[in-house]
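Question: Hello, beginner here. Any chance you could explain the protein record under this note? Any guidance would be welcome.
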Amino acid sequence: MGLKDCLISAVEQKAITREEASFLADEFDQRFAQNRLSMGDDLAKAKARKDLEIQLKAEAAEARRRADLTEARRLSVKSYLQDYRGRDGKPNVFEAAMGLLSHYGFRGASSVRGKTEAIIIGAQKNLDKVMYSFERKGLLGKRKNRALQGDVVRELHGEASGDATAKQLARAINSVFEDLRQRFNAAGGAIGKIENFGLPHTHDRLKVKAAGRDAWKAEIRDLLDPSKMTNPLTGQQLGAAGLDQALDHVWESIVSNGRAHLQPSMVRRGQGAIATQRQEERFLAFKDAASWMEYNQKYGKGDVVQAIFGHINGMARDIAAMEVLGPNPSAMVEYMKQAVALEIGKLETGKPTLAKGATIFKDSQAAVAQYRLDSLWQAMRGRPEVASGAARTTSNIKNVLTGTQLGSTVILAASTDPFVARAARKLAGLPVTSTVMDMVKMVSKGNREEIISSGVMWEEYLHIMNDELRFAGPAVGSDWSRWIADRGVTFSGLQPLTVGRKLLEARAWQKTVADNAGKTFDQLDKRFRTALEGFGVTPAHWEIWRQAKDPAGFVTPRQIEINGGGVQYIDMRTAAPHEIAAEAEALAHREASEKLAEVINSWSERSVPSGTPNARSLVNGLAERGTVGGELLDFLLQYKSFGLSFTALQMEAIGEMAATRGGGTGFRRSGLAYFAPMAIMLTLGGAAYLQIKSLLDFKKPEEIDPRKNPGFWFRAGIQGGGFGLFGDFVKSTENRFGQSMLESLAGPGVAFIGDTAGLTAGTLLAATRSETAKGKEKTFMEKANPGRKLTQYLRRYTPVIASHWLTRGVYNRLVLDNLQWMLDPNADMSFKAQIGLAKKNGTPYMVKPGQLTPLGR
C-alpha cells in the first residue's frame, strides 16, 4: 500500500484529520520531487518515506517533551496562585497572576519581566568587553570602533580577520549565543546548532515587500549557503533543490508577518507556542560575513551591535516566558485568566474563594481582571501594529518631542531622586546614607565598567532596538528620530544622571548583602528579609550569596556564577553521578545569581523611577499601534507614564510599610512615617525646580509664602510627584508649552500636530479671509502673522536648545525675540503681553522679552 493510500485509510479510521493527511501528502511530494533530481523514482520514494518517518518521530518526541514541560509549569503556576497571600494575609488570585507577569517586589516569586532582565544581565556581564568596545561616544553618539564590527562579523562566520581583539569578542558572543540556544531548548524549544552560523537577522518588512518576491529571491539566493540550512528537529539539510521553495515561504512570512501561512483555527492568532518560533530567524544561513553584511545593509534593521544585542534580548524574553509559564506562555496566560475568572465567580456566588473583592468595578470584576492580564501580557510581548506607516510616523513625532521638551527635566530629577532613593532604601531595609560624590564616582569610567561587569544592567544595550527613555516612555520609530530623543536626554544630563543613580543603588544592594554575609537568612533585618522574600529568595539562595564576596568586598551575580561553574546542559538521565552533582551546583548558582540580579534591577525602578509596563498597560490596554485609538492613547501617555508608575509603586510601598509584614510597629515603621518625609522632600525638590526654571528663563523666583502665593506649594507637590505638566494650570490657562488643559490631557503629540497644521495650512487659510482695519483690507502679514506663529513654533519645538537648561533662556531672548522682531509687525504688542502675563503669575522678567532686540535697545 502506497503512502497516500495509508493516509486515506487513516482518515477513514479517524486516526488523523483530512488537514493532517493533506499536509503529510504535500510533505512527501516535496521530498520525492527533491530526491528524484539525484536518484531514480523508487529510491526517491523510499528516501522520501524514510525522511518523513524520521521527521514525524522527531516531532512526536518533541511534542511529548513539550507536553511534559507544559504540565509541570501548569502545576507550578496553579500552586502559586493557590498559595499566594497578599499583605493582608489573605488570598488574592488576580494579584498573584499579575505578579507572575511583572512585579517590583512583594509577590514571593520571580516574574517573567524580572527573569527576562536577569537573563539579559547574565549575558551582558559575559559580554562586557563587547559592550565597552562598541559603546556610543561623542557629541553625535556614534559607536566606537566601527571598523572592528566588520572583523567581529567575519570571526562569527568562521573567517579569520587577523584581529586578535575581534577574535576574542566573537568567541565571547558565540559562547553567549550557544548558552542561550541550549537554555531555550531546555525550556521547550528546538533550535538546531549551526557551526559558524554568524548572526541572525531582523528583516525590515517594508523594504522586503517593496523589493518584490522575485527581486528579493534573486538577490538573496547568491548570498546563502543551502548546505547550512537544516531541519531543526531532524538536522537534515535543505539542499540547493529545496532552496527556491523555502525562499518563497520565507518571503511570504516576512511580508505578511506570518499571516500567509496561518492555519485557521478556533484559537486566537498569536497564541502559539514560543518554543516553536525561534528556528526561523536562524534558518537563513549566509555564505560568509560579506554576504550577511550586504543583506543587512539593504534589508535588515540596525547595525551589527543591534543585531547581537537584539538577538540576546529577544532570546532572554522568550526563555524567561517559557521558564515561568511553559513552552506556550500565551496559553498559560489564558489558563491564569480562567483560573482568576473561576475564583471571582465563586466570590460572586458566595462560595469560598481565592479572589479578593474589588473596591471599584465590582459588577465587572472578572472582565476587568481579564483585560488587565491581557493588556499587561501584550505590553510585555510587544503591541501589534495595524498600520505600520502610521505607527512609525506618530512614534517619530513622540521621539522628536522628547528630544525637544525634556531639556530641563534633569534639574527636577537631581532635586528629587535622592529622596525617592532614600525612601526605597528604607522600604528595603538598606542603609539610607549616600552622597553626591558617591554618585559621581559611579559615573566615572573605571567604576562604571567594574559595576556593570559585576552583573548590573547596562540600559543602552537593554533597549538596543526599542529605547526606553526616562520620563518619556518607550521610544520606537525610525533611527533618526530615536537619535534625536537619545541625544536630547543625553545632552541635558538626564541620561548620565539616571545611569549614575542606578549604579549607585545597585552597589548599595551588593554591599548590603556582603555586610550581612555573616548572618543566616533568619537573622536578617525583617524589612530586608521581606524585600528579598518578595522575589522568591530562599535560605538556600542566601547561603550561596553569602559565600560569594568578590575581591572588592561586594556580593555580585558574576562572583556567584564563578563559584558555581558553568551550566553544561548535560542529559541528566545518562550522565555520571559526579557530572550530575556538578550540573546541579551550576544550576543552583545560576538561579541564585539571577535572583540577585532581579532583586537589584527591579528595585531600581523604586529608587530611580522610569516607567513600568504595569502602569503603561493600564492606559494603553489592548489598543494596537497604528490605529486611531492606539496612537491617541500613546500621545496621551507621553510624559505621564512616569507619574503613573511612580504613584502606583509609592501606594504599594505605603501599604507594605503599614502591613504587619512591614517589619515593626509604631509610627517609625508605619505607612505614614514612610510617606510623610518623602512627600515633604519631594515637594521641596519640586519647589527648587520651579524656582531654578524661572531663573533659567530670566524670570524672578516666585513668592514662596503660602499666605501670598498658596498655589506655589501645590504646584511644587505635583511637580515633585511626576505630574508637573498639570501644575502649570494652577495659575494659568496654558502650560509651559503654551497649550491648553485639553491639549495637555491629549498629549504633546496632538498639540504638535495642531501647531504644525496651524503654521502651514492655518496660515494659508488666514490669508484667504477678508479682514479690514480702518476701512482698509489687511495685508497677508497682518492677517496670517506667520512670523509670530513661526517664532512660537520654534520656541516649542526646536530640538534640544529650546528646552535645555543651559540654552533655553538665551535662545528665547537673543535668537527668537530678534526673529520675531524681524518677522512680526506687531512684535512689540506680543512682547508686552508676555511681560504682563509673567508679572500676573508672580514671576516678572529680569531680562524682558524684546529687551535684546533693536526695539528694546
About this structure: Confidence is low (pLDDT under 50) at residues 265-271, 724-738. Strands lie at 136-137, 142-143, 467-469, 473-475, 772-773, 776-777.
